[in-house]
Amino acid sequence: MKYAIVTGGSRGIGRAIAETLNEEGYKTIILYNSSQEKAKELEEKGIITIKCDVSNRDSVKGAKKEVEKITDKIHVLVNNAGLWYLMPFERFDEDKYEKMLKVNLNGLIYVTYEFLPLLKNAGGSSIINIASNAGIGTAAEGTTFYAITKAGVIILTRRLAFELGKYGIRVNAVAPGWIETDMTIGGKSQEEIEKLRENFRNKTVLHTTGKPEDIAYIVSFLASEKARYITGQVIVADGGRIDNLTHSV
To answer: Quick one: pLDDT at residue 190?
Structure first.
């Protein structure tokens, strides 16, 4: 039996990843900090759910103890938990920035560090970090501080690949563009959602928007033996953002 952990796994991209890995035969464990009702829905599919605030190291240590009651080996760790606020630089809000930093970057560090012994025990495992195309320079109004945290995720991915390769641990990242989730369209009217969709369609050469499953399938590949020779890489999945494809090199 192979075990997978997905942080922020109760909804959105994390939920799609958890469901996909579960369907592919992994015993999947999600760490979640909200949406308990959605977590219960996953339990009905055989997915194990553990309440955990990844930005709190003590909470992560507690989650590790719960996982150790189940297994001493983790074959796949997906650091998906994330938080974002639209915040133009001129309206800098220290509290919001600190929250994003604690979840998006510190949380990834805490989870990876605490679960590293279990990843080593697997004798060949895979860490996949969910970054963002904002972290590689894709510009969007109000995303500067979010982009800083995701750029950190990308740098950390490459450094961890360098440091953990000696244990047979591969470390890669996926950098999504705009994905339709309850975080990106929740609370908006249908008219607002359609305007958002059209806006992002017009920014891609494929003229389409992304779904959580699009990211889940990439994660599934990176977790598998088919990707055994891939580490330290960032796969951008953004429909072919026109501004990224046409800028001068």
So the answer is: 86
Which residues participate in catalysis according to the annotation?
A: 146
Written as one string, the DSSP assignment of 75-134 is: SEEEE---------GGG--HHHHHHHHIIIIIHHHHHHHHHHHHHHHTTSEEEEEE--GG
Where in the chain are the domains? 3-241
> What's the CATH fold of domain 3-241?
Rossmann fold (3.40.50)
Would you report the helix, strand and coil content of the chain in percent, each value rounded to 5? 50, 15, 35
Write out pLDDT tens, residues 82-121: 998 888 899 999 999 999 999 999 999 999 999 999 999 9
In Å, what is the CA distance from 4 to each residue of 23, 26, 198, 208, 219? Answer: 12, 6, 36, 30, 11
Q: What is the pLDDT of residue 248?
A: 45
